[in-house]
Hints:
Helix content: 25-40%
Bound molecules: 2-oxoadipic acid, magnesium ion
Structural class: alpha+beta
Strand content: 25-35%
Amino acid sequence: MPLSQDTVQALAQRLDDCQQQVRDTTKITDDHPALDWNDAYAIQDALLARKLARGARLVGFKAGLTSRAKMQQMGVEAPVFGFLTDDLALADGGALRHAGLIHPKVEPEIAFVLSRPLRGPGCHVAAVLAATAFVLPGIEVIDSRYRDFKFDLKSVIADNTSAAGFVVGGTPMPVAGLDLVNAGVVLERNGVPVGFGAGAAVLGHPAQAVAELANHLGRHGREIPAGCVVLSGGITEAVSVAAGDSVALSVQGLGRTSLRLI
Length: 262
Ligand code: OOG
Ligand code: MG
């Protein structure tokens, strides 16, 4: 870890302030080119600690950049992982203030909720399916704190992988009998379909993203707890949203969920 504890804390504060004050910043790797993967996740951990100290609760995790469409859109080549706190959770059909965000985009995802904890290494699709209580359609709102939504992998990890909000559907579906690989996905903005895909877009099977999250957490001596929500990553490119937009997602076999920007 080339960065000192003080620098890690200062960078977490910089990203936290940007989110709270709704302003962007330059990539942290511009100032700290030697920053390594451990530094990037240490900054993310420091960001989580700041939010928990303000009274937030950890309610889940997210995998990001798990589809080719997302990797190409962002110009990066590997999945990243982040955390979800309760302040990011919206009620199904709920509204998010556009003025509280810098340059938000939405992503169609499949959300997993586990019935028992999962810990890597060695976690795989079958282990995830065996530990899954149910799956739900999920819309993630992302809002990079970096100027023009441009970043490298280490910078976006430090920024909690652009997490800014999420909503999930209200009908839990057990995975038995579901075909998450072929499940068709349609994202609509203001009633117009703007993104299409299938579950397979995420690493061949969205449960693979959950397995990789468990393996990532396992490397740090942690696990995915039962009952928390896991977003497995955007299936299509992220879609920009403006105040007044309504966004709906339907996933074949899983139903619908929606949110609004006001
Ligand atoms: C990084 C977060 C990506 C996903 O689902 O791929 C992500 C970003 O694109 O800002 O959440
Ligand atoms: Mg996402």
